[in-house]
Amino acid sequence: MENKIRFLESGKNYMKKLDDIQKLIWECSAQVKLPSPPNKEEVWMRLSQNMDITDMDMDMKQDRQRLTPPTQGIWSALKPRLNYAVALGLAFVMVLPFAYDSLTTESIVTKATDFETVQLPDGSTITLNAGSQIKYKKDFNSDHRTLTLFGEAYFDVKKGQTPFIVNTNHGQVTVLGTAFNVRTREDGFEVGVKEGIVQVANEAKAVILNQGQMLDVETDFDETNLQNVSYSNYPDWMHKKLVCDQTPLSEVCGEIERTFGISFEFATAALAEITVTGVIDAQDLNTVLSTISLLTQHEFKFDGETCTII
Amino acid sequence: MAEQEQILLRQVKNSDKNAFHQLFSDFHDTLFRFVVYRVQDADLAEDITQETFLRVWRTRDSIQPKKSFFSLIARISTNLCYDHFRYKEVRHRHEDLIPEFGKSHFDDPEAVNQAAMLQEEIQKVVNDKLPDKCRNIFILSRIEGKTNPEIAELLDLSVRTVENQIYRALKVLKKNLKNYM
Q: Which residues on A lie below 8 Å from B29 (Cβ)?
């Protein structure tokens, strides 16, 4: 057509219907050099971990939605119409930063049955108990030391000028340098201090915990609820032990479920209410189950997945 | 092939992680090349590719198994690319980078590797001037080397549509590269 240029091999007459320039573009466009894709299986491993986190987050959101009380008054009269607008607006606001967020957030998850020790960029170490998750921004330690915890973890915090902050669903734990344990469960929150001083706060109240003290409450952050850590190897799970002091059986079993990846059933509802006192060696499942049986004076049946207490 | 894809998509909808792994293995490399062609940065492309699959998983409830999986991930990844450009505010800077054709290095007598240069220009036009659908088809055809019937099946379009879109892409390219020739 216009300028008939061909610098690729002439004489190739295929694609007659295209003119020369188009032919040139056609041939040339396939010659691009692209970086080769990363190893698929490695990518899958990371992706698969992120999928688990996503699922955990979604479960948690659903739980929270169930707990949210219905809104009332004028708002509920307006709500039907505003619903869509609000949903749209929210979706827009939430989706935009997400792409960026996911590129800047580091997260570590443990499945049921294993726990993991990680070193943070500031030199602090965190040991995550089974079925737990921490999340922090990749710029951790630049001007903040803030992270989010779901589940339970033991923190050994390097001393530093920047406060080390652990956000949880129940409240915020702030320290400068110390060793402490945080446990968050659906219906409970426990912080215990092994070394140093820790501040625990929610919207309503802030409490200071000294060495050897612990707070085991849901929301009622108050000095009067402080207790002393009653045993030396705190926290118990770090030493593969389960320390129970008048602990309801349902709670003990919840910890065993997380640690060994099994589930419990109670033949009668009353069994869940029995309280247990003693130290259970959590090295292997058989020992744990027989100790439970001994402490509760009840038999159990175990089929490899589910343990039924009768 | 397409039938198998439907089955896998239905399993993914039911939270079947193995089925998702299968789809991931089938489409990862193609999607990666697809994205890296656009963003010109291997690390970023890797992140976007991963985020795309993650989004599919997160929204698996709303998957429509009868619709083409590649169309879905192409759309999500394209949106993520736009988000990225928007975020970095390089989107218009990016457009400024397109040289004024005819004036650029073409006049340079030292410019030996004309093919490589033309290739670069093509890539810019494809990324900045082609509509999404047209670009997707063009990249699948030229970069992935897929045949028109293969593309038609992958995107759940008619072969005729694919042919038309490729013809259209070439027309746009020709128009934009005219002075360069």
A: 37, 40
CA angle A116, A137, A61 (to 5 degrees): 75
Instruction: Specify burial of residue A196 (Cβ count, 10 A radius: 0-12, 13-18, 19+).
Output: middle
| Whole-number Å distance between alpha carbons of B38 and B26 | 20
Q: Which residues from A are below 8 Å from B118, CB to CB?
A: 24-25, 28
What is residue B32's predicted lDDT score, i.e. its pLDDT?
93
Interface test with B, best of A19, A28, A98 (most B CBs within 10 A): A28
Better-predicted residue by pLDDT, A139 or B181: A139
Strand ranges, E, within chain B: none
pLDDT < 70 stretches in chain B: 1, 87-115, 179-181
Residue with structure tokens 């929210």?
Answer: A90
CB A299 within 8 A of CB A262: no
Please state the pTM of the whole predicted model. 0.44
Of A40, A54, A100, the CB nearest to B25: A40
Q: What ipTM does this complex have? A: 0.72
